[in-house]
Structures are given as structure tokens and as C-alpha cells.
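Thread: assembly with ligand

MN 10:42: here's the input set. Chains plus the small molecule as SMILES. Want everything predicted jointly, not piecewise.
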Amino acid sequence: MLVAVPAFAQPQVKPSQQPDVIYVPTPHEVVEDMLRLANVGKGDVLYDLGSGDGRIPVTAAKKFGVRAVGIDIDPQRIAEANENARRNGVTDLVKFRNENLFKADFREATVVTLYLLPDLNVKLRPKLLAELKPGSRIISHQFDMGTWKPEKRIELSGRTIYLWTVPVPPKKP
Ligand SMILES: C[S@@+](CC[C@H](N)C(=O)[O-])C[C@H]1O[C@@H](n2cnc3c(N)ncnc32)[C@H](O)[C@@H]1O
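BT 11:07: finished. C-alpha cells for the full assembly:
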């Protein structure tokens, strides 16, 4: 059972940069659906871009045993996420970084999770395709990726979840 950390229990810190999207957590049951759809397992490194209270990386570590990183622009969220990892006993597997996801280095990821907005997914798409290795999986809660059609689109727990796999780039002539 994951231990939730109430937001009011955390000290208030203002972000130095404005978030591109407000904090709305993914319901816990949907988090597990996302990780199962990504087939997260041994050897994976999961990055949640815009990680909120850290529930996706914490669940990935606690229930799927993988290393995970959360990136969030808001230091308040990072403080909550660190406390969440501590309470769930996964600080050895999970790290949180207070960064702008559009500038962050996530090249080591084999699984990326997103709960952003449609236009942010589209804006992020070139960076995902340039930086992730072929075969890496991208899972988005609720929002698609414009003209990049998903490999899977499923409705679970009243939410839509999308899966893409990073393709092998075409050979240069
Ligand atoms: C909708 S919440 C999703 C939280 C978490 N991924 C989840 O599914 O529960 C979006 C998060 O993205 C963060 N965020 C917004 N703009 C960001 C940016 N440019 N770089 C990093 N994080 C950002 C917000 O602070 C917020 O915590």
C-alpha cells in the first residue's frame, strides 16, 4: 500500500519558473495501469516528466522494482515527492530533480510517463524522439501526441492511456 503525503504537510516554496501545466495527480489505480501498459520491468529506467508528488516513480520502484526519476519545475512538488519516496522506503531507487522538463536530460530513460497537455506533448515530441533510444516506451495519461499515432490507446478506470514506442531512425542515404 502506497503512503500518500498530504500537500498541507509540506513547507510552501514558490517555483522560480512558472509551470506549463498545473498540478493534477494521476489516480493511483491509473498509475498502475500506465506502468502495466508500458510493461515496466527489470532493467528499465523510468522518467516521469512533470512528476508532481512523485507517485509514478515511487510506484514504479515500489511495485515494479525499477529505478525511476521524477522531474518537476515546482520545488514544492519536489519536496512532496522526496517525502513520498522516503515514506515508501524507495529513496535508493528514486530521485527527483527540480528542472524544466524541456531542458532536462532524460536520455537514460527506457520508459517516459507524461500527464501534461496535448500541446505540451506535441512540443516535447522532437526531444523525445531525438533523445530516447529506439524501443523506449512513452506512456501518456489522457493526452495524445498530435499526428504521431499511438501504438495502443486504452480506456481504463475512466481514463485514456496512450502508448508509443520510439522507432529506429531511418538510415541516412
Ligand atoms: C498534471 S501534473 C502531473 C503529475 C504527475 N505526473 C502525475 O501524473 O500524478 C503536471 C506536473 O508538471 C509540472 N510541470 C509543469 N510544467 C513543467 C515544466 N516545464 N517542467 C517540469 N515540470 C513541469 C507541474 O508542476 C505538475 O506537478
